Amino acid sequence: MQITSFGFLLFAAVLLVAYYLIPKKGQWILLLAASYCFYLWAGIEYLGFILLTTVSTYAATMAMAANQEKQAKYLAENKQTLSREERKAYKAKGKRVNRVYLIACLVLNFGILAVCKALLIEPFKAAASAGTFSFLSLGLPLGISFYMFQSMGYAVDVYRQTCAAEKNPLKLALFVSFFPQLIQGPISKFGQLAPQLYSPKKFDGKQLSFGLQRMLWGYFKKLVIADRIAAAVITLRGPEHTGVSFFILTVFYAVQIYGDFTGGIDVTVGLAQALGIKLPENFIRPYFSKNIAEYWRRWHISLGEWMKDYIFYPISVSQPMLKLSKAARKNLGAFGKRLPVYVASIATWFVTGIWHGLTPNFVLWGMLNCFFIVLSEECSGLYEKFHGRFHLKEKKWYGGFEIARMFILMNLIRIVDLFPNVGDYFSRIGSLFTKFNFHVLWDGTMMKLGLTALDYIILAGGIVLMFTISLIQEKKGSIRELLWQKNPVVRYALIFALLVIVLLMGNYGVGYNASAFIYNAF
Amino acid sequence: MEKLLEILDELHPDVDFETEEHLIDNKILDSFDIVTIVAEIDAEYDVAIPAEELIPENFNSAKALYALVEKLMDE
Hints:
The structure holds 2 protein chains of 2 kinds.
Chain A: H1 6-21, H2 27-42, H3 47-77, H4 84-118, H5 124-130, H6 144-160, H7 169-177, H8 179-182, H9 190-198, H10 205-236, H11 244-274, H12 292-298, H13 301-316, H14 319-356, H15 360-378, H16 380-390, H17 396-414, H18 422-434, H19 453-476, H20 479-484, H21 488-505
Helix pairs in contact in A: 1-2, 2-7, 3-4, 3-6, 3-7, 4-6, 7-9, 10-11, 10-19, 10-21, 11-17, 13-14, 14-15
Chain B: H1 2-11, H2 31-45, H3 56-59, H4 62-74
């Protein structure tokens, strides 16, 4: 069930009414039932995957919790008799046992994810559909990358004892499957999300209204902008579009993926808010970033946080890395100090790349991001001197220049998503420096991309609206709070106008089904 | 504590680490800084800070960080 479908809206409406009518104790059970209904709607063949993750996570975390409890009890009972070393050795032994449970759980789950992702690419794809393993060619189970990362993060947290294990298997099942965020995140931490899922919720008109407004804004970005510009993105991927046409593709794809992904997250976060649940923000106006590190603190935040907590930090502070750090400092001076951080960054970006897909272009995408992060870190001293010498940071135009520079750089990196053959990507990048076909802007090429003049007008208006809203949010904070203080007639007139725009200008396909979200494929 | 302040000052000479209590919340320290600090502490105090301790509460102020180092030394 697409979250842009009328079926989904009806489903959400029935759930919201039932959610606030039934006794509060039963609200989380209703959410669990709704989440499984949503999942079954996608296909019964995927049910086994989510159940396996839920059961294996439950078994591993319960085993770790029982071990930790036993250990704490023993240490408390023998506090007086055990020496410091004995206590330390006993704790280390307990941790080793728990590490086995954790690793078993991680290997099983990430193994399944790796197999599912491998089956999307050749030669495994052809082998799976042709041979006796044809049942494996189901495609990627709905939301698997998201619910698996969320569940594995929880398992690591229990191992680290930064959160308590959930004893009720049904409550854990809800944490794994909570449907608004199941398909494209945000990837939540157990400590932030779980208590909210299980607590009783009183009806709050303001939260419901804010949630629905955010959903509407998400539908606008997805249906009016992203799905409209998608046609031109498909055309511009063709081999004949090089030079300036390729540059236009990078900008159009930036608009499409922003509308698609942030729009989908707006619908998710909005629906959760209407249910009284606050999900973490996944985007903070990323296209206003002035450097690449800032961009990654503003774009797909929950994935970045996950990678930082569970990949980057553990690698960076591991014993081999600390040894490397000591050796590098002695031999390489200041650069040596930063070397371990760079090694951990390469590993983290490699994992982030293959999370998106097991094809060379996604590995390249990760490495390009890593390269520019390291480059900007290494050049930071130089930049500071340069900025100071010409007092650039005090100049407004320079801030605008930095934003434009970052927007173009990220567009050029991101576009590799669309070229599974990295040779095609490099030849397109090369064409930017060799082909100056500016005439495509006025010779009629733009009218042959699958967009009409009206489409361009709607897109231009929509982009101006998104930009204006983002600017107001950046300067003055929440738009919905600002609207809330206005006269209700003005407020609801504006909301109604947006609803009419979505209904009239949404890019609905055959049977009024919008196209799938890009991040559903990851 | 003085050694720790030296480590922090070297990273960001413009920050007053004795008074600043929102090093993470105010985005003064980023993940690269945190990892550098962990390596420096390992070299200086011979204390390994595990990944699970890399949370904002432990890095928001020099005082909190020093308390963490002392706790890990005691363990």
